[in-house]
Amino acid sequence: xxxxxxxxxxxxxxxxxxxxxxxxxxxxxxxxxxxxxxxxxxxxxxxxxxxxxxxxxxxxxxxxxxxxxxxxxxxxxxxxxxxxxxxxxxxxxxxxxxxxxxxxxxxxxxxxxxxxxxxxxxxxxxxxxxxxxxxxxxxxxxxxxxxxxxxxxxxxxxxxxxxxxxxxxxxxxxxxxxxxxxxxxxxxxxxxxxxxxxxxxxxxxxxxxxxxxxxxxxxxxxxxxxxxxxxxxxxxxxxxxxxxxxxxxxxxxxxxxxxxxxxxxxxxxxxxxxxxxxxxxxxxxxxxxxxxxxxxxxxxxxxxxxxxxxxxxxxxxxxxxxxxxxxxxxxxxxxxxxxxxxxxxxxxxxxxxxxxxxxxxxxxxxxxxxxxxxxxxxxxxxxxxxxxxxxxxxxxxxxxxxxxxxxxxxxxxxxxxxxxxxxxxxxxxxxxxxxxxxxxxxxxx
Length: 445
Known about the structure:
This protein has helices spanning about 10-15, 20-30, 45-55, 70-80, 120-130, 165-180, 200-230, 235-245, 250-265, 280-290, 335-345, 415-425, and strands at about 5, 35, 60-65, 85-90, 105, 185, 295-300, 305, 315-320, 325-330, 350-355, 360-365, 380-385, 390-395, 395-400, 405-410, 430-435, 440-445. The chain has about 450 residues and is an alpha+beta fold. The strands form 5 sheets. It has a 6-stranded mixed sheet with strand order 2-1-3-4-5-6.
């Protein structure tokens, strides 16, 4: 178990080198630190992050101009907050995102790597107060860690009227960014800001307005390209987005989706081979389908992805009927819903069907001609042998098996038998998922 998990925006390390010195300083104090996240084969980004945070005693969230706009950093901070193990650390004079502004944080704005600096010693004291003494002895010989070499350019003197022109605003913004953030261990919140004069407050607001306006076009273009990448749902598309917008708030999500697609591609070897339709004759399949009593709803379309209010989740909506088809929450919710939308549109699905509502263990989707066929990018499917299906009871539950593989669990034998009839009648050769282990969408092929 690590003493400390460090949550940060990768841009702060790759472009500014501000994370490694903090990690080295913590290690010099004797703490065991985890900060370099890699996703092993067979795991998802969300699973790895959740596991590492759960295994850590304390989480340092490094708030910077880049990280306050990162959904991934905010998600990690929320997990740490729920576990009562969060300590914010401010690298830039920024305001913490909504929901975190009332949590005390350490001020490392302008920190030079000195382990005797009062800002640093305050942070170390806060960590010790949370987790106790470090797991390793302190390296007494280390009094300072190396910081990255940075260069600063002198702001140009504005020409003309500096009171209200754009150049004047930029100069004020540069001055404000240089002077705000003083203090040691503090709270970044509107209710408890340091006392400032009205001109200072106006200057700060003006600086924020300038910075917001200069980044507005960049963010809008990044959002548009990321949405296109979600529609394409390919490694190439997400990599192109990262190259074009390396500082975007969506970069970490794009990287995680690339990892997911790589894992899905690896799992596709060998690709499950659909069963030959002749195994169950057309006549037999037609008779079985005619006897089925299916529970289906029609899809008028078009289907669209919508953000859920308040909880950060997403849902897939049939706008033609104004009904919610599926929904999901969590860090991968948006990607899952866009993948589901692409499947519904790509396969031209017109019906959503269920076995065992209201909490249906099995759902499947149909086009006008039956189950979807072919293969879409990034699908997660398991093979089924429709001639070797059976229902087995175990511990009061009923399991649908294909040969030796358990597919779905039901509360009663009737639903399990109905599911077996559906798979047999439609000669299903694959059962597929979006978002395992708790899939937001399940479908048959």
